[in-house]
Design goal:
CATH topology: TIM Barrel
InterPro entries: IolE/XylAMocC-like, Xyl_isomerase-like_sf, Xyl_isomerase-like_TIM-brl
GO molecular function: isomerase activity
CATH architecture: Alpha-Beta Barrel
Protein name: Sugar phosphate isomerase/epimerase
Number of domains: 1
CATH superfamily: Divalent-metal-dependent TIM barrel enzymes
Oligomer: single chain
Order of helices and strands: EHEHEHEHHEHEHHEHEH
Keywords: Isomerase
Organism: Paenibacillus lignilyticus
């Protein structure tokens, strides 16, 4: 069964609930996992959310690096432990690993070393997520946002090396369109898809632009996709665009699942 959500802060959960969305997808970094006092203060809003916090994105805060010379393994391991604990407590099912800056390979750093570091990270995440009910979805980003993992196929390449049920892949329509990634990659890698992000022309709300949604939906249908579809984009008029986009999403993806 497909579910529809939006990437927003937890303060907008009531608004999304009002318009009939199935879940909210929030930034994991907003949980302030490295500040226990503040984290406990913030946690209540997620536990009491009128909508399920089905997914989290923005996995790492901006000052954590996961590749390059400034990687701090001990800090990362502590963060992953707290992240898994919090997501399990909240009841989330998906955690999106985007964090383009965190994984961007710095100048002068060898690519093979960066890839090894990323594999270590994914291995650590798989260990922490075991038994938590949460699946990590590796998010490919367009070339303007990162130089490591820029396509669904590349994300699957890393997931296969870990070969753990908690490590899967996300497909983001915006990033795919930015780099002209073929949509049939959705069916080619159907067994690895765990989550979907969508937007429309200009990274605005679904249904307002010229993205080839009919083909995108056809590929997801052929892939047998059943999971969350989150809009991740800018909004100019919330009270108009949220209900209109939800109607568009339901109409577009009605044959899925």
């Amino acid at each position: 069964m497909v579910a529809y959500g939006w990437c927003r802060g937890i303060e907008d959960a009531e608004l999304l609930h009002k318009y009939g969305f199935d879940y909210i997808e929030c930034p994991l970094s907003a949980l302030q996992l490295e500040n226990e006092v503040l984290h406990q203060e913030l946690l209540r809003a997620y536990l009491d959310s009128p909508l399920p916090v089905y997914a989290f994105n923005v996995f790492f805060p901006g000052d954590i690096k996961v590749v390059g010379p400034d990687v701090d393994p001990e800090r990362i391991r502590r963060y992953l432990y707290r992240a898994a604990k919090a997501m399990n407590q909240i009841g989330s099912k998906i955690s999106v690993l985007g964090s383009g800056r965190a994984r961007d390979i710095p100048d002068g750093w060898e690519r093979n070393r960066a890839e090894d570091q990323l594999l270590h990270l994914l291995s650590w995440i798989s260990e922490e997520l075991k038994g938590s009910g949460v699946t990590l979805a590796i998010e490919p980003l367009n070339k303007k946002e990162t130089n490591l993992i820029g396509s669904v196929a590349e994300a699957v390449h890393f997931a296969k090396q870990i070969n753990h049920p908690a490590i899967r892949v996300l497909a983001d329509f915006y990033h795919m369109d930015e780099d002209s990634e073929a949509l049939d990659t959705l069916t080619a890698h159907k067994d690895w898809l765990a989550h979907i992000h969508i937007a429309d022309t200009g990274r605005l709300s679904p249904g307002t632009g010229q993205y080839p949604y009919a083909e995108f939906a056809a590929q997801l249908t052929a892939a047998g996709y059943k999971g969350g579809i989150s809009a991740e984009c800018s909004l100019q008029r919330l009270d108009e665009e949220l209900p209109a986009s939800l109607t568009f999403m339901k109409q577009t993806f009605q044959r899925i699942g």
